């Protein structure tokens, strides 16, 4: 793995640097942070979330797409997060795109090292983007989804879900927690 850069970077500088790197990184306030290796539970939950979102989109026939991690979301000139899954609506991204400029839903699956950051810095950063309506923080080990939702009046409300359905409107999607965790 290459050494992390010593100088602060803009998102554009980071993207140019990261294309030649192995591993996963995020850029926070111009500083590059290496991401920890994923546990099997984390990787599996990421896949299940992506499938749940993809299936919900197919049922609605909307011009929206689900993506699993690998794409960045710019939340400032020097900050870019890489959510574990997301949904954006509108035209399909070009094949060489590295950023999603208008996500509607972003998802983070917490890990032992990311929980605090996912619930603080990322919460504030994601909701700085006007396009984001839903931010899901998912626990891969316990049956728990925290759904932060921006209402039409701009207020962000949080829902703690341990059963039932996750409703994401707009864009009008819904999936059962059973799709992530199995039957209760």
TrEMBL record:
Residues 11-174 form the Putative restriction endonuclease domain. Coiled coil: none annotated. It holds the Pfam family Uma2. PANTHER family: GLR1098 PROTEIN, RESTRICTION ENDONUCLEASE DOMAIN-CONTAINING PROTEIN-RELATED. This is Putative restriction endonuclease domain-containing protein. It comes from Methylocystis iwaonis. The lineage of its organism: Bacteria, Pseudomonadati, Pseudomonadota, Alphaproteobacteria, Hyphomicrobiales.
């Amino acid at each position: 793995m290459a050494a992390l850069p010593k100088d602060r970077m803009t998102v554009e500088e980071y993207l140019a640097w990261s294309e030649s790197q192995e591993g996963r990184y995020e850029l926070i306030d111009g500083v590059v942070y290496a991401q920890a290796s994923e546990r099997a539970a984390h990787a599996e939950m990421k896949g299940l979330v992506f499938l749940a979102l993809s299936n919900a989109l197919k049922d609605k026939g909307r011009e929206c797409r689900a993506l699993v991690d690998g794409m960045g979301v710019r939340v400032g000139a020097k900050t870019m997060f890489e959510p574990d899954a997301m949904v954006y609506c509108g035209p399909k991204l070009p094949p060489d795109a590295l950023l999603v400029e208008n996500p509607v839903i972003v998802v983070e699956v917490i890990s032992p090292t990311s929980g605090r950051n996912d619930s603080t810095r990322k919460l504030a950063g994601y909701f700085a983007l006007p396009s984001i309506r839903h931010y899901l923080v998912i626990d891969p080990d316990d049956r728990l989804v925290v759904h932060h939702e921006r209402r039409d009046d701009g207020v962000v409300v949080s829902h703690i879900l341990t059963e039932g359905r996750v409703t994401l409107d707009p864009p009008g999607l819904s999936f059962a927690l059973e799709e992530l965790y199995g039957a209760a």
